[in-house]
Write a structure and sequence with these properties.
With 240 residues, the chain is an alpha/beta fold. The protein has one domain (4-239): P-loop containing nucleotide triphosphate hydrolases (Rossmann fold). Helices cover 39% and strands 28% of the residues. It is built from 8 helices and 10 strands. The strands form 2 sheets. Strands 6-7-8-3-9-10 form a 6-stranded mixed beta sheet, sandwiched between helices. Helix 3 (104-123) packs antiparallel against helix 4, helix 3 runs parallel beside helix 5 (154-166) and helix 5 packs parallel to helix 6. The longest helix is centred in the middle third of the chain and has 20 residues, at 104-123. The chain starts with a strand and ends with a helix. Bound molecules: adenosine-5'-triphosphate. Adenosine-5'-triphosphate binds at residues 15, 17, 22, 24, 42, 44-50, 210.
Amino acid sequence: MAPTVLAARGVTKTYRKGAVAVPVLRGADIDVAEGEMLAIVGQSGSGKSTLLHVLGTLDRPDEGEVLYRGQRIDTLSRRRRDAFRNTELGMIFQSYHLLPELTALENVLAPAMIRYGVFAYLGKRRQLRERATALLERVGLGHRMTHKPRELSGGEMQRTAIARALMNEPRLLLADEPTGNLDPTSGDGVLELMRGLNQTDGLTVIMVTHDRAIAALADRTVTLVEGRVAEEAEGLRVQG
Ligand SMILES: Nc1ncnc2c1ncn2[C@@H]1O[C@H](COP(=O)(O)OP(=O)(O)OP(=O)(O)O)[C@@H](O)[C@H]1O
């Protein structure tokens, strides 16, 4: 059994809209094993994105703990959480979140610029550009390096976002409805790419989806029900 790389313990999260409290997570527990591809499913509004954001330190739980290799990460300062995300995690989103004024290559380089700071970045520029170029080639975008996001298709934007997520050599890829805005063919390409990164490079992947056919590509599926994480029986997942 592979060791746990990321875990949530008893996580609660309630959003407040005026006087109304909306409890979203009510004691969620999850263990993500090193090297697995895990799908998180659940009805719309069940808290899938909230859980992913908490696991990825974009959001803090009200109660409970988030652990990375056994160390608390939810209690880190904002600065250390930013650094943690920059070096250990790659994240991709349904709407890509690329910087519109930058080319595909510059978007992929951005995490390295943040990691090293401008001066150190300039010193390593050649090797970092080589890495970014190789990543874009790997995701099939060798011919789109100088295109800006508006000049790319949805599938190409998501591939660029994946290349960017890989720039700082993360151990984990967190994906929130990565194919939600894509046509089936582009979506399949993005999923194949993620599966390949998991199987060939050993990247641990956590993917939120509302689509059980997509979840069936993962090694394991968990469901969010009433703010808690329910493990699915193997047969249930296959039947979808
Ligand atoms: N920042 C916020 N402020 C207030 N309410 C929020 C906030 N973020 C999420 N919510 C509410 O929390 C609930 C869970 O949202 P979340 O996006 O985690 O669900 P989800 O399972 O990912 O949904 P979907 O599949 O529709 O994307 C929803 O009712 C949502 O309206």
